[in-house]
Amino acid sequence: MPLNFLLYMNMDKNSVIGFILIAILVVGFMWYQGKEQQASLKIQQHTEDSLRIVRMKRAADSTAAVQSIAAAAGDTAHKGLAAKAGTSIETAILGTEDLTVVENKLFKATFTNKGGRLKSVELKNFKSPVADSNVVLSGGPEGTMGYLISTGKTTHQTSELYFAPGKVATAADGTQTVSFTLADSSGQGITHLYTIKPNDYLIDWNIDLNGATTLLPQGIFNFQWQANPQQHEKSATYERQQSNICFYEDNNFDYISSKNDHSFEKPVQWVGIVQQFFNTTIITKPSTAFTGGSLQWKRAADTTQLLGDVTVNLQNKSLIGSHVTVPLQLYFGPTDYSILSKQPVEDMAKMVNLGRDLYSFVRPINRFVIMPVFGFFSGIVGNLGWAILLLTLFIRLVTSPLTYTSYLSGAKMKVLRPELDKIKAKTGDNQQAFAMEQMKLFREAGVNPLGGCIPALLQIPIFFALFSFFNSNINLRGVHFLWVKDLSSFDALFHFGDLPVIGDHVGLFTLTAILTSFLISIYNMSNTPQQAGPNAAAMKYMPYIFPFILFFVFNKLPSALTWYYTVSNIITLALQFVIQNYIINHDKILAAIEVKRKAPKTQSKFQERYAQVVETQKKVQELKNKQGGKK
After folding, report:
1. Nearest CA to 225 among 162, 310, 298, 324?
2. 96 and 181 belong to one structural domain
3. Is 302 helix (H, G, I), strand (E, B) or coil?
4. Average confidence (pLDDT) over 528-537
5. Whole-number Cα distances in Å, 146 to 255, 311, 321
6. What's this model's pTM, rounded to 2 decimal places?
């Protein structure tokens, strides 16, 4: 961008630069996410096809094993298989599924004897907008969780074997235990013991292996988790974008979102499938952390309620002895910062995306400013919509010193408008001369032409902090405010057929945010001196481009964010009007400019260099004009 282009602009036009920077960052952020997701779809589809082939082969192998057992018994009837039951774990490939349901104050857990595993968890305090029921977390139709064991002549995943029906016991303090056993006549056996506390989402899962040296192939505990997370929010498309896989490897938090897979080469303590507001996580103790493994993550690309496909493989090669216990824990619950930060597990709270990677600089803003302030206002007013309004007022109050400085610069520019018009009339279409005279005027008046960028640039970290905060704050989920039914999702003024980029709806808060942005642009342009030269036409329409871009970005965002932006814009309009008309004394500013103009003039190094550049360009242009005249 030529330097004289910047000097053509007063405070309001420099605000445009800031707004354009914000637009570029916002749209670039959305584009980058979409691009990464689309780029990985082809590779992910190949991964899914490979996994499907493996599952089909595994199913065929299981069928062959069943047929082999039946043939060995000499009778295909169930009576013959029953005669062998209890003599070999391999016979557990056949059986009847039996469900065991236990519940505490927070959830209702359903266990199955097929695999002796937790099948699903119904959360009592969270409703699903997809179905008229509570949110149910499970692995989906093809979801499994188990580990590989040797059953004599072959190997099986425990998720394929039928344990004895679950036994439930309740302690005096309300703690419940559910146990599943699988044993044979030789003394080898497996026990799965689950412990459910009265008021906790965390479930203890102890795996007791008697005869581990025989049961575990090559003495390795190979754990596999297959899951297909399902939609729990209004928009499956947006929930897919917010979903990712988080893990804690080598004492460090990490995650994958757009990537397809990850290999664990160092100890792993936990792995979690994280949706927008809920997660399911497998956890082990630090002393018995998984020693390696891998995971594959394929985000769904269709219009169903399926969010994606996840396969997690984990190994523990450090188990020694014939009788070993593998202590695991399961978390099926909300991705709530206040809940996860209290769990006795390292960095689970980082599942809540308060700022990552390129935008990790906003995480401290969220943790130490936005979250406590919003929590304070929520406790006062109760309604979270009004709490957002108070949060907006707080943010504008904190940033008011810089904002006032910017408005003061704008007031000076407004005072200089008549003189800028005279310079424009004097220089005509000679842009170089106009730039020189304008720079001279700004220097004499003590005006910083870039001062208007400050509030616009200040909005960048605040916007991205609130973008992360509102997207991850489960407390906004299902909260009604005015006409909005869910502050954590978009509000829909009306629906229509799905259109490219726009989507299938238009939100009212989106329209109010765009309208107030247009009003700010119109107000700023009314105080902007008209620019001369070929760039004048482009600059005339430049301020209106940003609100237009905002429509396509905001229409899919949570209504909490578009409500914040609406309030912020209204405050901006009110402040500009009041400061310009009732606080700033334009006569005093003009008098101060006259005093400044009479003072001895000094140039900064930048101004000196710029003057040299302009003068050089002027001479080059004059030389070209002379040469053209000779021809």
Report:
1. 310
2. yes
3. coil
4. 52
5. 23, 12, 21
6. 0.75
